[in-house]
């Protein structure tokens, strides 16, 4: 999964060529061919979970409520834009995950990416991994 800000089509091509499946969206820094090839919102069933990916979710304040209203038929929402890791659950049970960024750490001490296991309708082993500078 990739929540946008690819910037370079070559990265999309490289990941598509190596991945069995890629659930990905464009970000605010993606234009031209990236916007032509990628949707604003991507959805799939993964390991029995209804998953969505979107780049931007707005302000951190009220994020769970807004996303639960926007994605009522989703179990897990992956998002990007802020480049800041995020892991919360809305009152509706929607899990919101932002893996941060392996390349642009923003106000974080290091870059990050996230791994998880989806199986039998359960998301487990959610791990945020640091990327050494």
Fold blueprint:
Elements: H1 9-18, H2 33-37, E1 41-46, E2 49-54, H3 63-70, E3 76-79, E4 86-89, E5 95-98, E6 111-119, E7 122-131
Parallel strand pairs: 2-3, 3-5
Antiparallel strand pairs: 1-2, 4-5, 6-7
Organism: Geodermatophilus aquaeductus
Domain Calcineurin-like phosphoesterase: 1-116
Protein name: Calcineurin-like phosphoesterase domain-containing protein
What would your notes on this structure say?
This protein is globular. The chain has 133 residues and is of the alpha/beta class. The protein has a domain at 42-131: 4-Layer Sandwich (Purple Acid Phosphatase, chain A, domain 2), CATH 3.60.21.10. The longest helix is centred in the first third of the chain and has 10 residues, at 9-18. Helices cover 17% and strands 32% of the residues. Strands 1-2-3-5-4 form a 5-stranded mixed β-sheet, with no helix packed on it. Pfam families: Metallophos_2. This is Calcineurin-like phosphoesterase domain-containing protein. Belongs to the metallophosphoesterase superfamily. YfcE family. InterPro entries: Calcineurin-like_PHP_lpxH, Metallo-depent_PP-like.
Give a quick rundown of the structure.
By secondary structure, the protein is an alpha/beta fold. The protein is globular and about 40 Å long.
Summarize the helix and strand pattern as letters.
HHEEHEEEEE
**Number of helices in the DSSP assignment:** 3
* Morphology: globular
Q: What distance separates the N and C termini? A: 23 Å
Name the CATH superfamily classification of one domain. Metallo-dependent phosphatases
Low-confidence stretches: none
Which range best describes the helical content: under 10%, 10-25%, 25-40%, 40-55%, 55-70% or over 70%? Answer: 10-25%
pLDDT averaged residue by residue: 96
Indicate the CATH class of one domain: Alpha Beta
Q: How many beta strands in the DSSP annotation?
A: 7
């Amino acid at each position: 999964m990739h929540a946008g800000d690819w910037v370079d089509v070559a990265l999309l091509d490289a990941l598509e060529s190596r991945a069995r499946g890629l659930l990905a969206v464009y970000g605010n820094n993606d234009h031209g061919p990236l916007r032509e090839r990628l949707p604003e919102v991507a959805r799939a069933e993964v390991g029995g979970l209804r998953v969505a990916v979107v780049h931007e979710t707005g302000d951190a304040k009220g994020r769970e409520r807004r996303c639960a209203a926007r994605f009522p038929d989703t179990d897990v929402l992956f998002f990007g834009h802020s480049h800041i890791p995020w892991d919360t659950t809305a009152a509706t049970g929607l899990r919101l995950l932002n893996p941060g960024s392996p390349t642009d750490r923003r106000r974080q001490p290091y870059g990050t990416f996230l791994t998880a296991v989806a199986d039998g309708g359960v998301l487990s082993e959610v791990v945020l991994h640091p990327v050494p500078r």
